[in-house]
Amino acid sequence: MRVATTLSVVVLGAAGIGHAVVSGLDTGIARVDPFKDMKNRPTAGDGMNVLLVGTDGRDRISEAERRKYQLGGAPCHCTDTIMIVHISEDRNRASIVSLPRDSYAEAPTHTDQNSGEKHHTHPVKLNAAYAEGGPNLTVRTVEHMTKVKIDHYLEVDFTSFMKTVDVLGGVEICTADRLKDSYTGLDLKAGKHQLNGGEALQYVRSRHIDGAADLGRMQRQQRFMAAVIAKATSSGVLLNPVKFRDVTQTVLGSVRADKTFGSDEMLDLGRAMRNFTPASSEFTSVPIGKMGFAVPNIGSTIKWDPKKSKKLFDALREDKPLVPYPVRKPKALAVAVAPQQIRVQVENGTKTSGLGKKVDKALRWTGFRTTGAPVPADKPGAQRTVVAYDPRWDRSAKSLATALPGCQLKAVKGQGSLLKVIAGADYKGVTRVQAEDPYQGEFGVTTGDQVVCG
Question: Which CATH number describes the domain made up of 2-329+440-451?
Fold first, then answer.
């Protein structure tokens, strides 16, 4: 995610900026050689593929900031975040694919950079490739898994992430539900927030908000990346040489990149992507086949779906959009849980004939999984519509309640996953809602314009 921010700012920032401003900025980049002695690499496709790696690096953050943003503990010197960013050949589209750090992987034969021992191909979690063999083994492992040839490598740590957000003047994030994580200190109420660098770091690091863990964190990282692109393209950074210089100097001071990524590459990309907007970006995560895939001596891993993931990476290699055509949905209120994931039993709490069928049909039209067989309530005469739910499904209940303005929420322990709507005399209709992350297509893609505020 930190590296993704770098790409958003550096690549977009070069648009409209003269070569004199960009030249020389790349001298501050620490260089690595992730492609050294690599053989039998995948065949190059159209477009450009950048492997973005976010590392820990908390040892470079001041003690005061570490306490404020709960960055305690020793740095792990591992990859927190791994993404493939594909820039289309015509430079009109960016496709960002998140690779879970706990993905089951097979590291090719290599010499361990810590022990000096030679290891033959063996199973690892994906982020362990960096710990054992640095950027080189990380690129080799990703190419082996995806069959996508990596053209450039970028690596950013916590420090540059925080400074980049601050020099941009903060980034705006919206959430339909409260986000609270005691591990990172994140505590955002539902609504719109302007996050500074430290708060943004808490947002993209949090993975104890709900049961989605790392997968939920990846979605928030993608949402944040879209917000960064929106800020960079609307704040004047692209057209103001002084702002652009300040941003790039801040970012590049702690970036590591391959030897071929320099001023000319930044300028060429920037010029080509002059009209880039959040709508030009599409985000997804590699399709998952099995969560909690146990591997001896490694633990629980995430196993990719072999058929779906191959199809996804084939699309990248062939420079195809992950969403073949734009899908425009009617305007709707954002909710934390998609209606398609919520099962509902409708009960008619009034003496009005046919009200139960009317409510069931309206909810089903909005996307909720109703039973299609409404029943009379035990006690007719209800004046107010009620959503009865098991407390374990409170997020689903709040999403359903949003579609029924003015309804009352009633917790019923042990009710289970099936929510109940007891239609009352105050029923006025159903409001259209959609998931906060409105995924599209077979790869579950979200475009940047769908997830930024507004």
Answer: 3.40.630.190
SS3 of 178, please? coil
Best CA proximity match to 386, nearest among 404, 399, 360, 366: 404
Residues β-bridged to residue 181: 186
pTM: 0.69
Q: Specify the pLDDT at position 12.
A: 44
Confidence of residue 235 (pLDDT cuts 50, 70, 90): low
Q: Where are the domains of the chain?
A: 2-329+440-451, 333-435
Tokens representing 291?
Answer: 């969560």
Q: How crowded is residue 413: how many other Cβ atoms within 10 Å of its Cβ?
A: 7
DSSP string, 289-352: EEEEEEETTTEEEEEE-HHHHHHHHHHHHTT--SSSS---PPP-EEESS-GGG-EEEEEE-SS-
Q: Which amino acid is at 199?
A: E
Confidence of residue 452 (pLDDT cuts 50, 70, 90): confident
Helix %, strand %, coil % for the chain, to 5?
35, 25, 40
Q: Rounded to whole angstroms, how far apart are CA atoms 86 and 209?
A: 29
pLDDT digits over 98-111, tens only?
898 899 999 998 88
